[in-house]
Design goal:
Helix 2 runs parallel beside helix 3 (75-88), helix 6 (162-170) crosses helix 10 and helix 8 (206-219) packs across helix 9. It is built from 10 helices and 8 strands. The protein is elongated. Helix 6 links the parallel strand 5 (152-156) and strand 6 (176-180). The protein has helices at residues 22-32, 51-63, 75-88, 97-107, 117-137, 162-170, 189-193, 206-219, 231-248, 260-275; strands at 12-16, 41-45, 67-70, 92-94, 152-156, 176-180, 199-203, 251-254.
């Protein structure tokens, strides 16, 4: 077993962990900073999975008369460490135990006692942030060359909730781009190079879309009589969009009277089947 940050000729603290051990090392170094001029050799031994590995680490610590700090959350390893350290006469400090107990007492919830959960949480958080940034960057057909980087591409005519759907998916960690389908503008060629299962088309009832567009025009201070809200124009747009979707061979979802969450649930189910 190799301890991290091995040095010589100064007092030693071993940091033992069933995860990466960064938390324990940070606490030890923060405490060490309170001692003027005192050099300290911090040796971190991460990913301890068995009692034999803990025993080996403790024997090594005993061999150099070190103190031991630990962030073990697995009860079996923690129990073994405490018993073995006592037999070896090692000074031991449980870094995680007291705060776990305090949090349990105020929340009335039991700790999960799983190593490495904070790293998993951090990874999920940063994946979500990255997906949100992706959705913004590739919203509304911007930078079509980025479509090949997407987990999913949402297509449809204006006001079929493409952007809200992409943002919802982003909060699930899925990188989603969207492309508006307009008869006068050729879809980007990148769209047709994607596997059909990576594209989802949205369609909607023409009369409902007409009402949605009228309301949108009102909020912009524009007349509801413009071409954007013309029923014939809307029907033509939808027919054109569905023709493009059929050419791609993608899933088509009718979003009429559906909340974004409901549409997203169908898209997520479809997506997860595709990545299995």
């Amino acid at each position: 077993m190799l301890a991290i940050n091995l040095k010589l000729d100064c007092p030693v603290i071993y940091v033992l962990s069933d995860s990466i051990g960064e938390t324990g090392e940070l606490v030890v170094r923060a405490a060490a900073s309170q001692f003027d001029g005192g050099k300290l050799d911090v040796r971190r031994i991460p990913y301890l999975n068995t009692a034999a590995e803990v025993d080996e680490a403790l024997q090594e610590a005993a061999g150099c008369q070190a103190a031991v700090a630990y962030t073990l959350v697995r009860p079996d390893l923690k129990h073994f460490l405490e018993g073995k350290a006592s037999k070896l006469g090692l000074v031991c400090v449980d870094i995680m135990g007291p705060i776990l107990g305090a949090i349990a007492s105020v929340t009335n919830l039991p700790p999960r006692l799983e190593p490495g959960l904070i790293r998993k949480m951090d990874e999920a958080y940063f994946n979500k942030v990255e997906a949100v940034e992706f959705a913004v960057k590739y919203d509304d057909g911007k930078q079509p060359w980025g479509l090949t980087k997407a987990d999913l591409v949402i297509v449809g005519v204006s006001r079929t909730s493409k952007t809200p759907l992409c943002m919802y998916l982003a909060h699930k960690g899925i990188k989603a781009a969207n492309v508006p389908l307009v008869p006068e503008v050729n879809p980007p060629q990148e769209l047709f190079s994607l596997p059909p299962h990576k594209v989802v088309g949205l369609t909607i009832d023409p009369s409902l879309l007409n009402e949605i567009r009228k309301e949108r025009l009102k909020t912009l201070g524009l007349s509801a009589s413009v071409e954007y809200a013309n029923p014939e124009r809307i029907t033509g747009e939808l027919e054109y969009a569905e023709a493009v979707m059929r050419k791609i061979g993608c899933l088509i979802i009718n979003v009429t009277n559906k909340a974004v969450e409901e549409t997203a649930a169908k898209v997520l189910e479809y997506y997860r089947k595709g990545v299995e």
